[in-house]
Amino acid sequence: MIAFVTRMFTEIRALPREVHVLVGGQFINRFGGFVLPFLALYLTGKGIGMGHVAIVLGSMATGGLFGPIVSGYLADAIGRRNTIVVALVSSALSIVGLYYCQTLPQFMAVAFVHGFCSFLYHPAASALLTDLVRPDQRVLAFALMRLAVNAGFAAGPAVAGILFSRAPALIFYGDAITTLIFAGLAMLWLPHGLRTVTGKVTSPSVMWQSWREALGNMRRNRPFVILVISSLLMEIAFVQTFNVLALTATGRGLTPEQYGVVMALNGALIMFLELPLNQWARRFDLRRVLVFGFALVGAGCASFGFMRTQTGFFVAMVIFTVGEMLALPISQSYTSTLAPEAYRGRYFGIRGIVWAMAASIGSVGVWCYGQMGDAWWYVAGAIGVLGALVMLGTLREPAPPSD
């Protein structure tokens, strides 16, 4: 065990310096994500009703559907670093702009812009990470990025709460400042990455033509089509844990504090176990690992349907989180294996669109739970397991290049 951990840290240190810049910047950015955990509270404090709060959040999610389309193209056309910097600077400006909104239409418009800008980042960052590391380092690199996200999210909201209690403006400016710090690090230390689109890259006709070529390539890439469909199903199930579980747990008698501990278990398991688990899983066919991970996400969701005690919720959360730790970073690594170099940014753009679609579709889960009660968890679990069954279709295809 000691030798395994030592080898893992040796491999982390061996990653290119630019990967550590990306990971460090990701931590700073997610740590400074002060606004979103308090946005609903801020809006209600401005006199906006809950129904209109949902509209504002929906506007942000809708913007997120369009961001990856542009980002996937820009990552291949103007370079990964330039796209990352544009995403970070525009995201910082739009989050500050949200603070100065006064009316519902203003909040909706700026929330849409912010959702669009914030979703510009991920396809470009994933494409750059793929550019920077060898195939055998990809699982580790994507797991390390997720660790940075979760570590930042674990620490950031507590600081945000202190800032918000002092003055709401502080969370908006603090969020923007940390995002701009990452933009500065990117400008100084990240490489451009590959640029594979030629011609007048700022022309809309060039962009749409390049997307048509990329989509044609994707349609012929059957393992990627299967991954997209199966991931959408799994991710719809996945978001239910963050949309509905609070209602289920407190409805069954858990206090908010007990529910918080259940959710903290998810973060703790990811913080301490995801890297070693992914290092261990690398020895297997990634497609089989994904089938298992997707199935565990579905099984975890279904388990929430019949748990009645905090201990029971702990068990269900462990099942769900093990699935999450296998499914999310390895699906990114598998995408990097399937994506041709010429279309890498746009492949990750499609994966970003799928995630945004899952979040939008999954948000209906709150209404479904209100209509169906506990039975909704079994439906959500079945959707996740269906994703695993669809993923089995990749096993009939030739094996991807070995790490």
Give an overview of the whole structure.
By secondary structure, this protein is mainly alpha-helical. It has 2 domains: about 15-195, Growth Hormone, Chain: A (Up-down Bundle), CATH 1.20.1250; about 220-395, Growth Hormone, Chain: A. Helices cover about 80% and strands about 0% of the residues. It has helices spanning about 1-15, 15-30, 35-45, 50-75, 80-100, 105-120, 120-130, 140-165, 170-190, 205-220, 220-245, 245-250, 255-280, 285-305, 310-340, 345-360, 365-370, 375-390. Helix 14 runs antiparallel to helix 15. The protein is globular, with a radius of gyration of 21 Å. It starts with a helix and ends in a 12-residue tail after the last helix.
Beta fraction? under 5%
How much helix is in the residues?
over 70%
Q: What's the β-strand tally?
A: 0
Main beta-sheet strand count, sense and barrel state? none
CATH architecture descriptor of the largest domain: Up-down Bundle
How widely separated are the two ends? Answer: 23 Å
- Please give the count of helices: 18
As residue ranges, the low-confidence spans are: none
Number of domains: 2
* Name of the top-level CATH class of the largest domain: Mainly Alpha
Any idea what the CATH superfamily of the largest domain is called?
A: MFS general substrate transporter like domains
